Amino acid sequence: MSLQVTKSAKNPDGDITGLCGTGWSHSKSTAVANIQRDRTAYYVSVGGRTVYVRVGARNGRDYLTTAPDSYSPNNLDNLPDC
User: What is the pTM (predicted TM-score) of this model?
Assistant: First the structure.
């Protein structure tokens, strides 16, 4: 079952530290583990455009992002804060 992400938690540097939706909130580590088990664990839907949240890696560290689709309103960075 996929969860719809409607908000994201960010640290002062703008890194995504958590995901939130109606009635739930998951830390980054929980979200990463869930996505590693099920690539469709979380999705963002804005303006009728839906993308899945995915895990990327940079310098040996995991980060959360959405699948690229050239539509910035559904990017995690652009969602309201949790």
Answer: 0.93
